[in-house]
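ugh ok fine here u go
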Amino acid sequence: MTEQLGQAQVAVERQTEVKRDFLRPDEWWTRSYTAELWRVPVDEVDDMAAQRGVEIYRYTPRAGAMSSPGTSVAVYDPGRAHDVAEELRSERAAG
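structure:
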């Protein structure tokens, strides 16, 4: 859109609204979804989340609590994870 309107000297601004009152943990984002959003390998998500201040919540899903009680899942704060995705997009665009 910027390419099309930029020639006409029209200012273009992109705004994104993110719902920030997520319940834990069902509405938080999984490691694989966060990796896809950030365009990084899944095994880099935890380190990037720690470096960029994304809160991680670890829990044992109810479905696995009986059959695999030691198995936990990490999920990520979607509000901050979204902000990091925007930061990464800007960093990549800048070069």
